[in-house]
What we know:
By secondary structure, the chain is α/β, with parallel strands linked by helices. It has helices at 4-14, 31-37, 62-69; strands spanning 22-25, 40-43, 57-58. It has a 3-stranded parallel β-sheet with strand order 1-2-3.
Amino acid sequence: xxxxxxxxxxCAIHGVDPKASIFHEDRIENLKPAYDMGMRTVLxxxxxxxxxxxxxxxxxxxxxxxxxxxx
Length: 71
């Protein structure tokens, strides 16, 4: 990570459709390749000065994010 080939290979091996996927990550630079493939992205901490266009959501943890999704 963040080499896009890693993401492509993972999706190909596991039959994952990037456009139907969500990528959770705590390092902002690793979100860009996932976003470029069509994945929704969740940054697992907040960015103090705003967030780049390729960060769809921010959350303190996956558990917090999931609890908000199913409310």
